[in-house]
Amino acid sequence: MGSSPHDKSEFAPPQVAGPSIESELSAKALRFCTQRAARPSTFPATTMPRPCRFTCRRHRQTGFDDASTASQHPRMSDAQARKRHAELVKLLRHHDHLYYVEAKPELSDYDYDQLYQELLDWEKQLPELVTPESPSQRVGGAPTKGFARVKHLVPMLSLEKIEASDSPSVAEEPDREQRNRLQDENTVNRIRAFDADLCKRLGRDRIEYIIEPKVDGVSLSVHYRDGRMTLAATRGDGQNGDDITTNIRTVRAIPLTLGDRQDACPTLLEARGEAFMTIKDFEKLNAQMEAAGEKPFPNARNATAGALKQLDPALVAKRPIRAVLYAVGACEGISFERHSEMLEQLKQFGLPTQPLWWVCDGIDEVLRVYRDEIVTGYDEQRDLRTRVPYEIDGIVLKVNTMADWEKIPAKRRSPGYAIVHKPVHWITPAETLLRDITVQVGRTGVLTPVAELEPVFVQGSTVSRATLHNED
Q1: What's the confidence (pLDDT) of residue 33?
Q2: Which of 12, 101, 103, 92 is nearest to 325 (CA)?
Q3: Is the omega angle on the peptide bond into residue 168 within 30 degrees of 0, that is, cis?
Q4: Which of 5, 55, 208, 243 could be a cystine partner for 148, CB 3.0 to 4.6 Å?
C-alpha cells in the first residue's frame, strides 16, 4: 500500500491559495530536498543526503545554507541523523494532523511521499531510530492470532435514548413530512421533562448543557500514558473490550503521542470516542469493492467495525478509518471542571474532536439551538447532517458541569447526566418509487442487481441508486 495519507479522499477540502508552512519553499530547494530523498540508493551505505535548510519555516534549523551545497552529499554524524529523523517525525505528524483531523492539507501527495521516504531511508540506515511512535509504524505489523480481552478501568456505558412520540398517527396526519415533524416536536417536549427532573435533583432553576452530534460509528477507548499511546480497546460489553491497539496504531487520525511536549502530558489520559468512515470515503470504498466483484458493505458503520476486527493490521491500514474523541475515562495527573473544557483540551493535545458542539445556558437555549442549528426548521437540505462529513443519527445532550454528574443517579447501563435524542425524520425510513432494476457487472464478472430510484433525501444526501445485494 502507499504511504501517503493524501489518496484523493474527498474528506479534505480543495487546497486554496495563501500562506502555509510549506508556501515559503523555493522551487529549487524543494526539488533538491525531494529528489535526493527519492534516490537513496545513489549514496554509499554510510552516507545519506543532507536535508536542505529550506524544507519549511518550522524545520529549517539544520542543513545547508543553500541548495547547491546539498548536492555534495556530506557524511552525517549519528547526532545529526537523529536530529534530522526527529524533524521528519515532527513534520509528518504535523501534516497527518492537518490532513486527517483539520481537513486542511498543506502538502501535495508527492511532497508528503518524499518526506516519508526520507524517514524510511534514515530508519533503514539506523534501525535504532525506529520506535513504536514513528510514522513508519502506521502501516501495520504482523497479523495477530486473536484479540486479548481487557477490563476497562472505568466502565464504558451507553446512553439512554428519549423514546420517540408516535403522535399523531398515520390516521391522524396522513402527510408523512408533517407527521414526522409533529412527532418530533412532541418528542422534544420530553427533553423539557428531562431538564425538569435534573433541576429538581440539583436544586437549580437552570442547568448549563452541552449539545454534540451523535456519531454513528464504532466506540473505542485510547489510553495515553505519559503522552504515548499504550492501549486501544473496543467498548465490548461495557466492562470488558477487545485489545485493538495494533489496529488503531494504523489509523493516522489518532496520534501516537500527545502534543509536542511529553513533560506537559498527564500520567494517564483515556480518551473515548468513535471510529468511522466519512460518507464519501465509504462510497468510494464500496465502488472499489463492486468493481472488484466483491460484496459491498451495507453501511459505513458496518465497514468500520469489520475493519477494526481484522487480525492483520496491514489490512486495517488500507481502510479509510478516521475518528473523533469526545469523552474521557480514567485520568491521572489531569482533571476537568466542564465537559466543554475537556473537549478543548483534547483538541490541544492534537486529538481529533468534533467540529461542531454547543454550550447552552438552560433548556430554552437548548431548544433554540435544536430548532435553528440541528434540524434548521426541519429543512433537511440544511440540517446538521449536511454540515459534518460522517453519518450522525442524533444528538447527545449532556450536563456540562462535571461535578454535577456524581449527584445525578445513573441508570442500569447508562449515566443519568446525559441523554440521546434522534430526530424522528432522521430515523424514519424514506419512501420513494422504484423506476427500474439494472444489472452491474463487476471486474471479475460478478453480477449485482441495482435499483434505479426516484431521487430521495436520506441521511443527509440524495439517493437515486441502491444495490440489491442485501435482501433486507
Answers
A1: 39
A2: 101
A3: yes
A4: 243
- Highest averaged pLDDT of the listed ranges 50-54, 78-82, 289-293, 333-337: 333-337
User: What is the distance between the alpha carbons of residues 223 and 225, in angstroms, rounded to a whole number?
Assistant: 7
Q: Which three cell numbers stand for residue 408?
A: 445525578
Instruction: From 126, 118, 132, 121, select the one nearest 59 (Cα to Cα).
Output: 118
Query: What whole-number distance in Å separates Cα of residue 370 and Cα of residue 211?
Result: 9
**Nearest by Cα to 401 from 273, 209, 214:** 209
Strands 228-234 and 218-225: antiparallel
pLDDT band at 428 (very low <50, low <70, confident <90, very high): confident
Cell of 18: 495563501
- Catalytic residue flag (residue 145): no
Residue 338 cell numbers, joined: 466542564
The burial of 25, by beta-carbon neighbours within 10 Å (0-12 exposed, 13-18 middle, 19 or more buried), is given as: buried
Please give the radius of gyration of the chain, using alpha carbons only, rounded to the nearest integer.
25
- Please state, for a pLDDT cut of 70, what percent of the chain lies above it: 77
SS3 of residue 20 by DSSP: coil
Domains of the chain: 27-139 (1.10.287.610), 214-427 (3.30.470.30), 434-467 (2.40.50.140)
Around Cβ 158, how many Cβ atoms within 10 Å?
13
Tens-place pLDDT, residues 263-310: 689 999 999 999 999 999 999 999 998 888 888 898 999 999 999 999
User: How far apart, in Å, are the Cα atoms of 82 and each of 62, 85, 125?
Assistant: 11, 5, 11
**Torsional class of 95: left (φ above 0), alpha (ψ -120 to 50), beta (otherwise):** alpha
Contact of 35 with 137, CB cutoff 8 Å? no
Angle, helix 27-38 to helix 109-125, in steps of 10 degrees = 50
Handedness of CA 29, 30, 34, 35 (dihedral sign): negative
Confidence tier at 116 by pLDDT (50, 70, 90): confident
Residue partners of 416: CB distance under 8 A and separation at least 6: 408, 409, 410
Pairing of strands 208-215, 149-151: unpaired
d(CA 77, CA 71): 17
Give pTM, 2 decimals. Answer: 0.71
pLDDT at 112: 82
Q: Which of 124, 214, 318, 411 is catalytic?
A: 214
Other CB atoms closer than 10 Å to residue 74's CB: what's the count? 12
